[in-house]
Amino acid sequence: MSGKTLIKTLTYWDVALFLFLLTGSVTALIYVSAGVSKGAVVKIEVNNKLLYRYPLNEDRRIHLEFMDIEVKGGRVAVIDADCPNKLCVKQGFIDRGAIICLPNRTVITVEENGKDKRGVVDATT
Amino acid sequence: MKLILKIVLALLVTTALAGLFVFVRHTHHVKGGTQIYKKTKIAMDTAITITVVSERQEKAEKAIDVAFKKIDYYDHIFSFFSPDSEVSLINKNAGIKPVQVSNDTFELVKKTVEISELTEGAFDPTVGAFMVLWDFAKAVKPSDDELKKRIPLVNYKNIILNEANSSVMLKLKGMMLDFGGNAKGYAANKIAEVLKGEGITSGIVAIAGDIKTFGTKPNGSPWYIGVRNPRGTPSDLVGILKLKDLAVSTAGDYERFFIEGNHRYHHILVPQTGYPATEFQSVTIVNSEGFITDSLDNAVFVMGKVKGLEFIKKRNFKAFLIYSDNTTYITDNLKEEFERENSH
């Protein structure tokens, strides 16, 4: 059967089947790739050493000797710390950027695929 | 038979199109692979974030590593607290003998003395003698007497520089150099040069609030630098500066402080008294050189409202000021780069 005869014998059902298959596979691909790129993680570093790395979409509490950290609803916060000014606690929940506690030499960063998840600003003075 | 053939053909075409979709996405990702990479570390007694634009992750990571090694080196020679730093050696030998130092330390001391002259002592690196009496984390405030006794020890004119053998001496015993007020800005510029040497054409070196930008973001736009609200959380901004190849520093009364009896005691000390300066909440300076921005934000903070503004205007410096009564001032030459946040 030549290509021409094949096209001639195509029915509406054939076209519908083809479109259905195409839509299905493209949707699946988009779904999978979006799912992969949504892999934001929380990194907790103390003294410039990586201690923990958790997905941002799993709620949990992390207890360090000097600090309590909570991951909840895709955001992270320091909920308690033993430093004097508690700037880290005052910063509240973040879903991008970083929380830094200098007295405890702790850096909590939200990252996406190994890259920094960008906020409105690139740095703060 | 016909039906099976049609189905197989439809499946083949679908697979081919889906494959093409993946291929296009992938090649687009590789081609448009210029990305922003960031790393934050704690060094020089503060948080340092290096941001680079690179087409390859390995290149970005290598450049950032080299930059942090250089920061460790500066930390090692400039540190006020580390007992074996070059600055500590100069301090230990105050009133005793000159100390031969590296070119980096000699350059920093020399440039700082020039800044002290320019600002008529509003910036003075020998403020260390006062600084050691305060402990802002533990809310320790020295007595009037303790401070008064040390006033003669704080004077940049008693720094003796010898270019011939690259040595530095402090004339009086008990004098102390402290570059906490400007070594970060100095280093930010130097680190930007290190990154450029690694083939990075755009990025940011942010040593606490002392920031040097170079190049642009991947989309060609300037870097957005938030200016903190002195009475808000660290992510609460009063405005955004859009900078290309410029440095910025902010001296703020919120960085290291304690509050006692309704009075805020912070780390920006007046070199002539040893007490914190009182007329600003923050002073932000923009210039091409980080050393200038970091030295002058402190100097203007110390000068106060009238003298500070006069100094800025006379020399056409770019500045954004937040006075202690919460009012603000921006110089005309910075208005184009500055976008005010609605909240303030």
Question: What is the strand and helix layout of this fold?
Answer:
The complex is a heterodimer of chains A (125) and B (344).
Chain A: H1 3-9, H2 12-37, E1 40-46, E2 49-55, E3 60-64, E4 67-72, E5 75-81, H3 87-90, E6 98-101, E7 106-112, E8 115-116, E9 123-124
Chain B: H1 2-31, E1 35-43, E2 46-54, H2 57-78, H3 86-92, E3 99-100, H4 103-118, H5 128-131, H6 144-150, E4 159-162, E5 167-170, H7 183-197, E6 203-207, E7 210-214, E8 223-228, E9 237-243, E10 247-252, E11 257-260, E12 263-266, E13 280-287, H8 290-303, H9 305-314, E14 318-323, E15 328-330, E16 338-340
Antiparallel strand pairs in B: 1-2, 2-6, 3-5, 4-5, 6-7, 7-10, 8-9, 9-16, 10-13, 11-12, 13-14, 14-15
Question: Can you tag this structure with a few keywords?
Answer:
heterodimer, A: about 120 residues, alpha+beta, mini-chromosome maintenance (MCM) complex, domain 2, 2 domains, 5-stranded antiparallel beta sheet, 3-stranded antiparallel beta sheet, 3 helices, about 40% strand, rod-shaped, B: about 350 residues, T-fold, 8-stranded antiparallel beta sheet, 9 helices, 16 strands, about 25% strand
Written account of the structure:
With 125 residues, chain A is α+β, with helices and mostly antiparallel strands. Chain A has three helices and nine strands. Chain A is 30% helix and 38% strand. In chain A, strand 4 and strand 5 form a beta hairpin. Chain A is rod-shaped. With 344 residues, chain B is α+β, with helices and mostly antiparallel strands. Chain B has two domains: 35-77 and 181-340, ApbE-like domains (T-fold, Roll), CATH 3.10.520.10; 85-177, T-fold (Orthogonal Bundle), CATH 1.10.3980.10. Chain B contains nine helices and 16 strands. At the A-B interface, helix 2, strand 8 and strand 9 of A face helix 1, strand 1, strand 2, strand 7 and strand 8 of B.
In short:
The complex is a heterodimer of chains A (125) and B (344). Chain A is α+β, with helices and mostly antiparallel strands and 125 residues long. Chain A has helices at residues 3-9, 12-37, 87-90; strands at residues 40-46, 49-55, 60-64, 67-72, 75-81, 98-101, 106-112, 115-116, 123-124.
